[in-house]
Amino acid sequence: MKAIYSITIMAAAVAPLAFSVPVQAAGMDSRIESSAKQSYVFKTYLKGDDIKIKSKDGVVTLEGIVSEEFHKSLAQETVAGLPGVKSVDNRLEVKGTAPTANSDVWLREKVKTTLLFHRSVSSAKTEVEIKDGIVTLRGEAASQAQKDLTTEYAKDVEGVKDVKNEMTVAKTSQGKRTAGEKIDDASITAQVKMTLLYHRSTSALKTKVETKRGLVTLTGKANSVAEFNLATKLANDVNGVLSVKNRMTVE
Fold first, then answer.
1. What is the pLDDT of residues 162-220, one digit of tens each?
2. H or E element at residue 64
3. What whole-number distance in Å separates Cα of residue 18 and Cα of residue 23?
4. What is the C-alpha R_g of the chain?
5. Are residues 217 and 195 located together in one domain of the fold?
6. Collapsing DSSP states into helix, strand and coil, what is residue 39?
7. Tag placement on the chain: N or C end, fewer CB within 10 Å?
8. Rounded to an integer, what distance in angstroms lies between the CA atom of residue 108 and that of residue 167?
9. Residue 95 near residue 64 (C-beta atoms within 8 A)
């Protein structure tokens, strides 16, 4: 009788433990889905897209329609950076016909995307036109420094042959730049990764990006001190980044 009683007690103790495991997993999946939807990237860059996020035991599936080709990668990189995510199955499709690789339309998208993530330039106030690989920039820059930096960033996009910057410089000072809203770590990591990928000078770098409370850590290998320094500079100018620790080794 004692043996039967002991088994009953053990079974009663184990049952809640076994039940708590799937409950915890479901809670984690729910947090992943919610965090993705509430992230800066999804609420800012992907807000017009129809993206469905489903997580099961940390394996996330993305389905739906996005308006731009780079939105697919941006969504995946953001979700991959969330706590608890093990892998991402990206099934997103691009609305309409994707631009031909290396075409002027394709190149314009890359230039606009590159400017988009940098806080020291204004993508919203910069018009980008491309003809046979030559970029013409129009619009308004807050300062000559901003205009020059816009030229520099556009020139460093793979495929760009030359840049003509016809932007005007604002006559009045627009004051100091505000700190802006707080951006989550997953969104920062995704933006830094996309930035390093889209810039010609850093596209070949095998860089691991980690972000904790706005502090970005870069690890991996750089081919030169110049590449090392540029990776630091570009990451520092990404929306939401507070500081950068570059721990890459120079080969």
1. 999 999 998 875 544 445 568 999 999 999 999 999 898 998 888 999 999 999 999 99
2. strand 59-66
3. 9
4. 23
5. yes
6. coil
7. N
8. 17
9. no
